[in-house]
Amino acid sequence: MAAFEDSSFSLERFTGLVRLFPLPNLVMFPHVLQPLHVFEPRYREMLQDALADDQLIAMALLSPGWEADYEGRPPVSPMACLGRIISHHQLEDGSYNVLLLGIERVRLIRELEPSKSFREAEVQICEDFYPPEAAAQRAALHRSLGKSLLKALPLVPQAREQLDQLMAADLPLGVLADIISYLLDIDLREKESLLAECDVHVRAKKLLLHLKATASDSAATRQSAVLFPPDFSPN
Fold this sequence. Notes:
Blueprint: E1 17-23, E2 33-38, H1 41-51, E3 56-61, E4 79-90, E5 96-111, E6 119-126, H2 138-152, H3 157-168, H4 173-183, H5 188-196, H6 200-215, H7 218-226, E7 233-234
Parallel strand pairs: 1-3, 2-7
Antiparallel strand pairs: 1-6, 2-5, 3-4, 4-5, 5-6
């Protein structure tokens, strides 16, 4: 579910402190919209705190072994995605359905001492890096991503229409790579690696390898199309 930009976010006003929302089954990327179902009391409080303030939440992937301490503060990936709450709806049972827009990659510097039921951290914004010496390769990488994505998708009219819209938007290479990384049905740790890569050209080349592998697995490509747009991700 592509969104591309959030013009309301200001780097100058960003304090570097975030509410941390760690999940075991989701790697969020900038420029996309993620539905979330928030039901745990600590994350309801986190959402209410965000809505009363800057509407920002950082989505992080829980590290392997999180099951032993899920109710506590298990380790998370050092790279996360800062997101802004675009819409929310509280259900009768007190839980929320939320739509979160990915804004920026952030690297966790340190986690704050507990003062609330949810976790908080200090982070650093990590902007896309385009190697100047490789500018001539950018257009070729952009075309290769489009062609490889076309091969990876099954012959489903809706999927092809979405791809046509995506490619017609003439997006920067980094934005296109993030959207495809989010949509692609690959291992979470592979997605984590793509999120952690700030060099856009390196990220695009890694993604091309995944797309080629996905194109050779018809079952995986069929499933990835069915899941677009994705369902709500529960906490």
